Amino acid sequence: MAKPFAPKLKRPIKIAVINRKGGVGKTNTTINLACEFVNRGYATVIADTEKEGGCVHWQTLAGDDAKVPVVGMYDPMIKVNIKAYEGSNDIILIDTAGIIVDMDDEEDGKASKINSAVMAMADYVIVPLQPAPADFRATEVCVESLSKIQGFRDGAPFFRVLLTSTRANEDLTRMALELFGEDYPYPVFKTTIRRSEEFKKAHAYGQGIVDYAKRSESANDIRDLADEVLRDLDEGRA
Ligand SMILES: Nc1ncnc2c1ncn2[C@@H]1O[C@H](COP(=O)(O)OP(=O)(O)O)[C@@H](O)[C@H]1O
Ligand SMILES: [Mg+2]
């Protein structure tokens, strides 16, 4: 088997997984990608910025066997706090909360501030969505704010949209592939993460799919996604 693509990174890279909507596959993408990065030899840590977040819970399920350390960071000062992890890691994956319902609500307001702080410091952003009209809309909004931030940050963060939970021969998946296909004005991953119950099983054991079911379609999807992200980094897009 060919050696997996694992280019040397010149500096620690902060990869955030963001979409203001919940249930789009942010946590699933973060955990599984992080496990694959570890398999390729990168020192990796997950920062979970969601209160009682899914990554922290995943680590609890894994106990001492967790493949990737997870740190909870529920503070809008995240930029400062994350610095402590930059020296000893190649990749910092940041999982974020799905929010913006009620800005007057204290928790929502805080989560929103954290999300903005993450957008302002990330090197690279993955914007996942599932094939559903509400996700299409939320993704448009998210991508537009990222594009605005690029205007202030000299083009950073580089981002790509990721279709998750796709299904062959499903109308909504076809619709999503059309909307977020070649004609979409922003970058989109070629890889899509297909819908599979295997992800949930792996999660229940505190594992990533690339270890739980190495030869599954889902593990292939995650390895393809890792290839694309690492190619972007190697080619200096972030
Ligand atoms: N590719 C997939 N196949 C099957 N289930 C998935 C997939 N991606 C996510 N899910 C499931 O969908 C739900 C929401 O995903 P999650 O990653 O927690 O979203 P978010 O973090 O954006 O809220 C979870 O139950 C998760 O297990
Ligand atoms: Mg989540």
UniProtKB/TrEMBL annotation:
Q: Which CDD domains match?
A: ParAB_family
Q: Which domain of life is it from?
A: Bacteria
Q: SUPFAM superfamilies from the xrefs? A: P-loop containing nucleoside triphosphate hydrolases (SSF52540)
Q: Which InterPro entries does the protein's record reference?
A: CobQ/CobB/MinD/ParA_Nub-bd_dom, DNA_Partitioning_ATPase, P-loop_NTPase
Coiled coil regions in record: none
- Where the record annotates domain CobQ/CobB/MinD/ParA nucleotide binding, the positions are 15-207
Q: Which Pfam families does this UniProt record tie to the protein? A: CbiA
Its recorded name reads CobQ/CobB/MinD/ParA nucleotide binding domain-containing protein
